[in-house]
Amino acid sequence: MSPLIISAIAPDPIPVKGSDNRFHVDYELSILNFSPRPATITKVETLGGNENGPVLSTLTQPQIAANSLLAGDYPASPASVTVIPPGNTLILVLSDAYAARGAVPTAVTHRVFATFGPVPSGQNYLSTFYPDQAAQIGGSVLTSKLQPVVIGPPVEGNGWLAGNGLADGELNTHRSAVLPIGGRISGTERYAVDWARVDPATKPIQDALFKGDPSKNASYLAFGQPLLAVADGTVVSVVSDQPDIAPGELLGGLPFDQLTGNRVVLDIGHGVFALYAHMEQNSMTVKVGEKVKKGEVIGRLGNSGNTTSPHLHFQLMRSSLPLTGDNVPWEIESFTLVGTARAAGVVSGPDSGPRSNELPLGNTVSNFATPARS
Q1: Strand 226-228 vs strand 335-342: parallel, antiparallel, or unpaired?
Q2: CATH number where 90 lies
Q3: Least C-beta-crowded within 10 Å: which of 16, 67, 77, 150?
Q4: Distance CA 145, CA 148 (A)
Q5: Cα–Cα distances in angstroms (integers) from residue 9 to residues 21, 29, 30, 92, 243, in the given order
Q6: Which of 220, 225, 198 is nearest to 364 (CA)?
Q7: 291: domain range?
Q8: Do the domain assignments include residue 374?
Q9: Which of 142, 174, 201 is the C-terminal boundary of a domain?
Q10: Averaged in consecutive runs of 10 residues, what is the pLDDT profile of the chain (374 residues)?
């Protein structure tokens, strides 16, 4: 018997150049425990090409547990997943990184090692056919030949923190947004970023987000900041009537279509849509059907919907409806990398400076030029 059924969730992933000068390939594996015994995944190897290919990277058991979700399980206090119960499916979030675009393999597969617990009582003789341990091959992935979408920045000015952005070995709010929509599993926020503004000179980082009373939206450096069209496009959706909530007051019980709060969605061509979420109430300067130019102000940053403090949730997607389509990797054509946000404050590094055609990675802080306006 094959106790595990392993498959890749993402369509052919597109490598994206991160602000660490590496090329990132991000996708998820679905691992169904078809056996009657609880399974523990102890190691996962990414292999170049096929099962006879070289080992490109290895995840240990703690790394696997920290980057896993159980399908159909939504714990109030998420914890590392260590066991797949019989008949359950584990979603393993993977992020491979390579030093150069030419080093990205055209295809990979995976070797998954697992051990299995005792057979529950009441099982018939078929349960004896399942092993105590296994090493299975599965989850083949082909690398796409497409390029990431290159865009202008959605915000302007200095000190923008890429919250919940792409990061190695980190199962954050966005990478864990793996949802069943339209009869399939989709990583709906794989490349999303929560843009918040900080003062890099203020320490610790939790105090760098605001000046004054942290219980008021107006105290936050990001609140009310202009939001920019990242490309020429057409406005296909505008929601503007949701209230801005006080910082720290996460609204419970929001309907699915209100999670993004006030929003604008732009059709930027080739089946790609740009989502701006949690915008300030009634701040939109565009209407459905209107054409916009790259760099044009479309509204202002707010704190509406499923949010705890003012920020812009931004992503590209293959659907005009939020959370329903595949996420699209993107790179910003020009910005200045300032450093990385740590608990103690913003730390500059040897790689700080001007960047072009890169995706600012999670917890980095960047400066963006302000477009000239007539």
Answers
A1: unpaired
A2: 2.60.40
A3: 77
A4: 10
A5: 26, 6, 6, 10, 36
A6: 198
A7: 149-368
A8: no
A9: 142
A10: 93 94 96 97 97 96 95 86 95 95 96 95 90 96 96 98 88 91 89 97 96 97 98 98 94 88 98 98 98 98 97 97 92 97 93 96 96 74
Question: Of 145, 68, 142, 65, whose CA–CA distance to 109 is shortest?
Answer: 142
What is the number of structural domains in the chain? 2
- Whether residues 211 and 357 fall in one domain: yes
- The two beta strands, 23-33 and 149-151, are unpaired
Q: How many alpha carbons lie under 13 Å from residue 220 in its C-beta half-sphere?
A: 29
Question: Which residue has tokens 């008021």?
Answer: 216
Helix (H, G, I), strand (E, B) or coil at 217: helix
Three-state DSSP state, 127: helix
Q: Which amino acid is at 37?
A: R
- pTM flag (> 0.85): yes
> How far does CA 197 lie from the centroid of its chain?
19
Residue 62: enclosing H or E segment and its boundaries? helix 61-66
Question: Helix, strand, coil % (nearest 5) of the chain?
Answer: 5, 45, 50
Reported as type and span, the H/E element at residue 64 is: helix 61-66
Domain harbouring 262, CATH code: 2.70.70.10
The amino acid at 319: S
Closest by CA position to 329, among listed 349, 352, 358: 358
- Please give the distance of CA 254 from its chain centroid, rounded to a whole number: 21
Rounded Cα–Cα distance for residues 219 and 236 (Å): 32
Give CA–CA dist 156/140, Å, rounded: 40
Instruction: Round to whole Å and give the CA distance between 229 and 296.
Output: 5
DSSP for 43-54 reads EEEEEESSTTSP
Considering the domain architecture, whether residues 264 and 311 belong to the same structural domain is answered as yes
Domain end position, chosen among 107, 142, 177: 142
